[in-house]
Amino acid sequence: MKKGKATSGRSEPFPGILYSEPGALGLVCNIIAAFIVAVNNIQGDEKGTKLAAIVTATEIAISSSLAIISVGLCVLSLLLSITMAKICTVLELAILLHSISFTTHIFNADTKYFPMVSSILLGLVGIHGFILYTVKGLLDKNLLPEGEPLIKMRTPITPALPCPTFRSRIASDLFKAAKVLEKGEVICVPTDTVYALAGSCSKPDSISKIYHIKGRPPEKPICLCISNLQQLRVANPPFSPLLWRFMDRCYPGGITCVVKKGPWLQNLGVGEAADFVGTKESVAIRVPDSSVLSYLVSITGPLAITSANPSGEPDSTHHNTVLDTLGGKLAGVVCDDESNETVASTVVNCMKIDEGLISYFRVGCVPKDIVDNLFDEVKKEQSDQIN
Questions:
Q1: Which of 272, 281, 363, 372 has the fewest CB atoms lying closer than 10 Å?
Q2: Full-prediction pTM beyond 0.85?
Q3: Alpha-carbon distance values, 374 to 13, 37, 218, 219 (Å)
């Protein structure tokens, strides 16, 4: 229910003090009227009497004008309040009646009990609204009836999303996303670079779905995503100390290392998906510096990932872009707003690293010279350790 804004009226302490609605304009009117009345109370010599007469005439003109303006503003507020809670409409009506009673007093009309009745009504409704919204604000409970709006505004129809969405910072949502992956479905996930399509390695068919969804040529490999380097160490691949040292410097982050395939992939929990990730001889290992994706991988195990964009099109840097381009083909999107980078990771060929050589399949968010410097430092450290 939409909460209306409760406003309160004030009884006039003496003629000339005008209450108007909205409050800001009413306050200005009150100050002006109070000043006029104060000047009108000046007593003195003949000159002062003439001044008082002039001020009295001015007071009548200004007070009358302000009173009419006040009634008009109250009518406007009443019309606007019919889309709010009913108590707001009743309150605005009470304020309008009170304003009318004051206006009739300005014009010296014989209203008898009208001002008193309108003041009592305004006071009762004001107390009701004060208690209602105070309790509602503090305890989120309706101690007194609020009432439905007399006219309900039509709520804009939000277009249905093409697929389910999951909030990246809500653990329960990520758990739901993990369940979708475990069913063999493909979802979009945020990384430390751009958004990626992901499928569980425990469900090799999901990797085939990634190729189909993205329109990716079968000769282009998909990389393997793990949560941390320790996960790779436990799999015990036969990597050289130089390669381990280099990966220590690269992970986690926007560098992907391409290494030789082997039976160690089974120790990693890749299973039959080993035939679907990478090439026959190699596999790209991705360890993103993303708490969201790391948490997801810790639940599901290794994921096969590739950038979340139709093949040949720019990388997706916002979950809305993914929803627009691929949403209808996905089982879900983990939403994390803008990505940290505008391009994907830098892919480094480490197949000949033991020969002191690295090359690049793709230069992405990490510049080539930075990676080269890292490798030079690693080689020097390795050489110093041997010597």
A1: 281
A2: no
A3: 81, 83, 32, 30
pLDDT of residue 62: 66
Residue 268 CA from chain centroid, whole number = 37
Q: Which tokens sit at 242?
A: 């130089």
Q: Is the N-terminal amide bond of 162 cis, ω within 30° of 0?
A: no
Q: Which helix (H) or strand (E) holds 122?
A: helix 114-139
The answer as to whether 90 is a domain residue is yes
- Domain tally for the chain? 2
Residue 78, pLDDT > 50, answer: yes
Q: For residue 311, give Cα distances in angstroms to 69, 91, 213, 216, 220.
A: 65, 61, 9, 5, 10
Q: Let me know how many helices (H) and strands (E) the chain has, helices first.
A: 12, 10
Residue 375: give its domain's CATH number.
Answer: 3.90.870.10
Does residue 143 carry a pLDDT above 80? no
Q: How does 173-192 read in b/e, with b if 16+ C-beta sit within 10 Å?
A: bbeebbebbeebbbbbbbbb
Separation of alpha carbons 134 and 29, rounded Å: 28
Cβ–Cβ under 8 Å, residues 207 and 277: yes
Task: Give the whole-angstrom CA distance, residue 257 versus residue 263.
Answer: 18
* pLDDT surpasses 60 at 36: no
Q: Name residue, tokens 């979009």.
A: 188
What DSSP character marks residue 275? G
Q: Can you tell me which residue has the tokens 């129809």?
A: 157
Domain that holds residue 275: 165-386
Report the distance separating Cα 68 and Cα 63, nearest Å.
9
Could you give the CA distance from residue 76 to residue 363 in angstroms, rounded to a whole number?
Answer: 63
